[in-house]
Amino acid sequence: MRWYQGYRTSSWRVDETYVKVGGRWKYLFRAVDKHGRLIDFMLADRRNTRAAHRFLGKALTTMRHWPPSSITTDQLGSYPKAIRRLQREVKLSADTKHRTCKYLNNIIEVDHGALKRLIRPTRGFQTMRTAAATIKGFEVMRMIRRGHCLTCKPRVKEEIRFVNKLFHIFAVAA
């Protein structure tokens, strides 16, 4: 799917939300660009500096050809520490700005709600592995529906063709 995503802007919005896994609340870290296109996500047991560092490192690896010029987060104290640590490790440019402006993160907050509407009928997940796989599927289908890939067209038949191409399915149900 990454091959079809195309260019991302250099302004990232990063936030976390809660997801129930195995009867316990876990943290779903997500990053989107300023247009709402998904950069990456990660499930974690805790919402601390180590988890934020791991997630941002993963997102930077995913988008290594398009590093961010600015990262907007909420007021969570672990993000500034994680960003400074990544800058010390030279995984993130020292020029990268960290913003904590609340209204700039509205795009990802609204996106959390849309994702949670898909997750709610599942009534939680049994394991982290199934949660990650299911959320990945939800995110891919949402990207296709919203036209966040280069070859996606906003028609159902085109969506079917694209999914068939991704999964190497050669018979198309008409």
TrEMBL record:
SUPFAM superfamilies recorded: Ribonuclease H-like (SSF53098)
Q: Which GO terms describe its biological process?
A: DNA integration; DNA recombination; transposition
A molecular function (GO) held by this record is: DNA binding
- Which keywords annotate this record? DNA recombination, DNA-binding, Transposition
Recorded superkingdom: Bacteria
Q: Report the InterPro entries cross-referenced here.
A: DDE_dom, Integrase_cat-core, IS_Transposase, RNaseH-like_sf, RNaseH_sf, Transpos_IS6
- Integrase catalytic domain: which residues? 5-165
- PROSITE patterns this protein is in? INTEGRASE
**Main role?**
Involved in the transposition of the insertion sequence.
Name of the protein:
Mobile element protein
Q: Which organism is it from?
A: Acidisarcina polymorpha
